[in-house]
Specification:
six-stranded antiparallel β-sheet; 7 domains; 15-stranded parallel β-sheet; 30 helices; globular; alpha/beta
């Protein structure tokens, strides 16, 4: 980097001019601080992994002579920014070098004497009372009609913590940009400062369409963690003022912190929720009046233009970008690839490539841009797969929707050079439509003109935000100074640990007053705040947020009246652990490799990692497990456990399986925030409110067979993918409406002696990621809410009151449909569902099977008790492997002879007398025609022989005949399943060695059995015969 050789000369000449004033030096120091925050603090900040090697504190830098004030050329810090030295590699390590502008700024800073960026300034501390008064005064100045639409953003806490005026100004700009980037209105509307210090800002929800398309502010309120509940006795005045604001605005939280909003609303889920972005790119295109397929086919060069290249800087492989004309300007769609071979090579497949995902950039009505990340199928993503796209310039290279895109597209669309058109032109006889490809991939000049047009649109919108965005020159200076986009910059800053002044200001106290409280209150020390007492002490952001409500409670409550502190188990080296439950002790001893009754220490318990298996062990007391602090999974089904309190501090737990126990109180689980899987079926649980904060519950939550009726605590579990409410008396599904990650949902009144009263399943309508649904409610009659769930693959609805299944016709991805006991006569809506693999219909009134025509994907068909007589329509379903036609009125089975792939066929309880047409089929198919179901055809043959029957494939074996069986010999007959033998209640001798039998449960009730020979079988358990 040649600039480094000449900088010192320039710097020395300019020192007297550029840094003559304290204000100029402070401004320079702040610029350097901003560069450090963006590029260095993750590794070299107070909590960084390399802070011991180098701490980015001004005093530390000077004391260690890494920075020599006034002498950048001999400062190791500066030299390492230019390239490697004898002391180490170029910095930042494993990241792109700083820009020349940033390096120059740091050089100027060192030459100016390395002035301190932590300048102490006089602050006129703004109290919480003043904040409330200021908002109330402004609210009263509005027309009463406008007050319900008024909301407020505050950064008073940042001002009180000593943030610089320049940074506070940048926060205002970032807020204006983000709010307008979350707006569907045509006009830019900037928040308005309402106080002299310009730390409180008013917005009108209507100016962003936050009051019409979705209930935006309630979603913000729900996510906001820093609302303060004032104490009715000691803070009655503050409580009264807040209540007035809440009443007049119709909100629970009328104001939120700006820094939290920037860090949170720029990312999913809030980014998606506020913009109300749909679940698929197709739905977004419909919303924006973009017909991608039609444009490509009919209007290349008019409504769509495409370019391709392999050096985007984001995509690891090739990238194709495609611009469409949309309702509000441009709709840019990228196609990204996980590889570059075969159809992923855009230079040889310019029209029919196979992509793996993409990014969508589209203009909002006000000219700013919004973003959507999608997978190969167009489904919305929160984060892009890092093997496809990444952000190498960031400390976290994951591309996250909203924030990463905003940080990249700082001044609109990124420019690019198309490489595909040249390849098309050079290919004389390509295996694709060359003319169409050339129409779609235009000259670079056309692309440049489109990019310029879209850039101007975006920058005109930016100019209306004002400040450093007011004109091009100001924008360039701003980005030169800060290196990165302000929303992204403040997101990074928000993640940093809080200092004492930061934390104090966040709770409305001056720093020394807050520290005094910490020194005097054990309750605050118990929350980990004693670290703030130390010089330069900090508290981690996640810990602060998690404990915020408890901090406020501790501040408002004398220690003398607080609930007693629950002591965590003291970990004394060598201490013996008391495990009073003998069965649990046996499990732990086995897991630790200990001899019976050997001493188990706390250190021993801490070595328990991974999974502890203790299912069906007769355990009733978990005491002792409180010391298993590193346990990740606990499998404890089928026990007599009622008290979970020993688990309350095991924060490393990720999975719990406690089905079939005696649990009623879930409060010990409320702080186990790392739980991602929880199975609590068949307990005595009615209150699930302790689960409300377990936001990492992701894979599955099973609450089946519990008296749970209110599921509102589940509304915050935004990551949940699978939910089981089988046998729970739940009639209101509205809390599920926001659980957009749900893939699997099951609810049933089976096992209840009353119906659920579930008539409305409309809350499921927006859960478009659902692939598997079970609905069992006797009063449910309408499936219309399922119309839009096009990703649904399995649908089961049993014993309902449903007669119309027309809503199912739209579920084009459905593979399995199961319906029993519904008054349905018309199944024609299934006719166009070509992906169906399983159809299971029981107890309907079917006379016409034409809806099955052409279903070549169908492998399993169950049509039990439907009054069917004519099965000729089945002859073409040659892909079937399992078919159940029992309980119908069928006499002619000849149409089944062509179904040569069948392995299992059940025809019992039909008036069939002639099976001759199935003789060939019987050689490979297990055909059941009698009253006893014997799935294994080889076992069936052995039983038929023992009973003296011929033609075992078709002959009926009745219950009465099974009772006459006293001896059965079935050695080496390839038998795998002995289902059916449970009816041989008088069986005395069974010889079945050398088979493939694993499950002996059908023998569990055969009390007359005297001789059993099952030698050389892969038997899993002897429990069925030993008790």
């Amino acid at each position: 980097m040649k600039i480094g050789r000449y900088l010192p000369i320039v710097i020395l000449i300019c020192v007297g001019l550029a840094f003559a004033t304290a204000d100029a030096q402070e401004n320079l120091a702040q610029q350097v601080s901003a560069i450090f925050q963006q590029s260095c603090l993750n590794c070299h900040g107070p909590s960084g992994s390399f802070k011991e090697a180098l701490l980015l504190d001004r005093t530390a830098l000077i004391d260690t002579q890494v920075v020599i004030p006034g002498d950048p050329e001999n400062s190791e810090f500066y030299k390492r920014l230019l390239g490697p030295t004898e002391n180490g590699p170029q910095m930042p390590l494993n990241l792109p070098p700083l820009s020349p502008e940033a390096v120059e700024t740091i050089a100027h800073w060192i030459a100016a004497g390395a002035p301190d960026w932590n300048v102490q300034r006089d602050i006129n501390f703004i109290t919480t009372d003043t904040i409330l008064d200021t908002i109330q005064t402004h609210l009263k100045s509005l027309d009463p009609f406008d007050r319900p639409s008024a909301r407020y953003f505050t950064m008073t806490h940042l001002y009180n913590a000593g943030e610089t005026p320049e940074t506070l100004s940048d926060y205002r700009i970032a807020l204006s940009k983000l709010i307008n980037s979350l707006s569907w209105k045509f006009e830019i509307s900037n928040p308005t400062p309402i106080d002299e210090a310009q730390t409180i800002f008013h917005i009108d929800l209507r100016r962003y369409e936050w009051n019409t398309t979705t209930e935006v502010w309630p979603q913000i309120e729900q996510a906001y963690p820093y609302s303060i509940d004032f104490d009715p006795e000691t803070q009655a005045g503050l409580l009264e003022k807040l209540t007035q604001l809440q009443t007049e605005t119709g909100s629970t939280v009328p104001f939120v912190h700006i820094d939290w909003f920037l860090a949170t609303a720029s990312l999913p889920p809030l980014y998606h929720d506020i913009l109300d972005l749909p679940q698929t790119d197709g739905a977004l295109e419909t919303q924006l009046a973009v017909n991608v397929e039609s444009n490509i086919r009919n209007a290349p060069g008019i409504d769509v233009w495409r370019a391709g290249f392999n050096d985007s800087g984001v995509s690891r492989h090739n990238r194709v970008v495609e611009r469409h004309t949309s309702r509000y300007g441009a709709y840019w769609k990228s196609y990204d690839f996980a590889g570059s071979a075969e159809s992923q090579n855009i230079f040889t497949y310019p029209l029919d490539f196979t992509h793996d995902g993409g990014e969508i950039v589209f203009n909002l009505p006000n000219g700013l841009q919004a973003y959507l990340l999608v997978d190969a199928n167009g489904n919305r993503l929160d984060d892009a797969p890092i093997d496809i796209v990444s952000n190498p310039a960031a400390s976290d290279p994951t591309v996250r929707n909203g924030l990463s895109c905003i940080g990249c597209h700082t001044q609109g669309m990124k420019t690019f050079k198309d490489s595909v058109r040249a390849a098309i032109e050079q290919d004389e006889n390509p295996p694709y439509n060359k003319e169409q490809a050339l129409r779609l991939y235009p000259e670079q000049s056309v692309l440049d003109e489109l990019l310029q047009k879209d850039t101007v649109r975006f920058q005109q919108a930016l100019e209306k935000i004002g400040g450093p965005f007011a004109d091009d020159a100001s924008r360039q200076r701003f980005f030169k100074q800060h290196e990165n986009e302000p929303i992204q910059r403040f997101h990074e800053l928000f993640q940093a640990p809080l200092s004492a002044s930061d934390a104090a200001a966040a709770v409305g106290l001056e720093t020394e007053a807050f520290l005094t409280q910490i020194r005097e209150k054990q309750s605050l020390k118990n929350l980990g705040l004693q670290t703030l007492i130390d010089v330069n002490g900090t508290v981690k952001r996640d810990a602060w947020t998690s404990n915020f409500d408890d901090v406020i409670a501790a501040l408002n409550t004398p220690d003398s009246v607080l609930p007693p502190v629950v002591q965590r188990p003291e970990l004394i080296p060598g201490q013996s652990v008391n495990i009073p439950d003998d069965n649990l002790r046996g499990v732990v001893e086995e897991a630790l490799g200990k001899a019976p009754n050997a001493v188990i220490t706390v250190e021993d318990m801490a070595t328990l990692r991974g999974t502890l298996w203790m299912g069906d062990m007769g355990i009733s007391d978990l005491t002792g497990l409180e010391f298993a602090i590193n346990l990740h999974e606990l499998k404890a089904w089928n026990n007599q456990i009622s008290d979970l309190s020993p688990l309350k501090n095991l924060i490393n737990l990720e999975q719990l399986e406690f089905g079939n126990n005696q649990i009623s109180d879930l409060s010990p689980l409320k702080d186990l925030i790392n739980l991602n899987r929880l199975d609590l079926k068949s307990n005595a649980i009615s209150d699930i409110s302790p689960l409300a904060g377990l936001i990492n519950l992701k894979w599955v939550l099973i609450l089946s067979d519990n008296p749970v009726s209110n599921i509102s605590p589940l509304k915050n579990l935004k990551n949940l993918r699978s939910l089981w409410l089988w046998g729970c008396p739940v009639s209101d599904l509205s809390p599920l409406a926001g659980l957009t990650e749900l893939i699997s949902f099951h609810i049933s009144d089976q096992g209840l002696d009353f119906d659920l009263g579930l008539t409305d399943i409309s809350p499921l309508a927006g859960l478009t990621n659902l692939t598997n649904i079970t609905l069992h409610s006797r009063v449910l009659s309408n499936l219309s809410a399922l119309v839009g769930l096009i990703n649904l693959e399995r649908l089961k609805f049993d014993s309902n009151n449903i007669s119309d299944i027309s809503p199912v016709a739209n579920l084009v991805n459905l593979e399995h449909i199961i319906t029993w006991g519904n008054p349905i006569s018309d199944f024609s809506p299934l006719a166009k569902l070509d992906k169906l693999k399983t159809i299971d219909i029981c107890g309907a009134d079917i006379t016409d099977l034409s809806f099955l025509a052409g279903k070549q994907e169908l492998t399993e068909l169950y049509l039990v008790k439907n009054g069917i007589s004519n099965i000729s329509a089945l002859a073409e379903l040659t892909g079937l492997t399992r078919l159940d036609l029992s309980g119908n009125d069928i006499s002619d089975v000849s149409p089944l002879a062509s179904l040569t792939n069948l392995t299992w066929l059940k025809l019992s309880n039909n008036p069939i007398t002639d099976f001759s047409s199935l003789e060939t089929l019987a050689q490979t198919t297990n055909i059941l025609t009698g009253e006893v179901a014997i799935p294994d055809r080889n076992l069936r043959a052995a039983i038929a022989e023992a009973l003296g029957k011929k033609n075992a494939a078709f002959v009926s074996i009745t219950l009465k005949e099974m009772t006459t069986l006293t001896e059965l010999r079935a050695q080496d007959m390839e038998i795998r399943d002995i289902t059916g033998l449970e009816f041989a209640i008088n069986l005395e001798n069974l010889y079945a060695p050398d088979n493939h039998i694993a499950d002996l449960s059908p023998l569990s009730e055969l009390i007359n059995l005297k001789i059993l020979n099952v030698y050389s079988n892969p038997i899993e358990s002897l429990t069925p015969i030993t008790g």
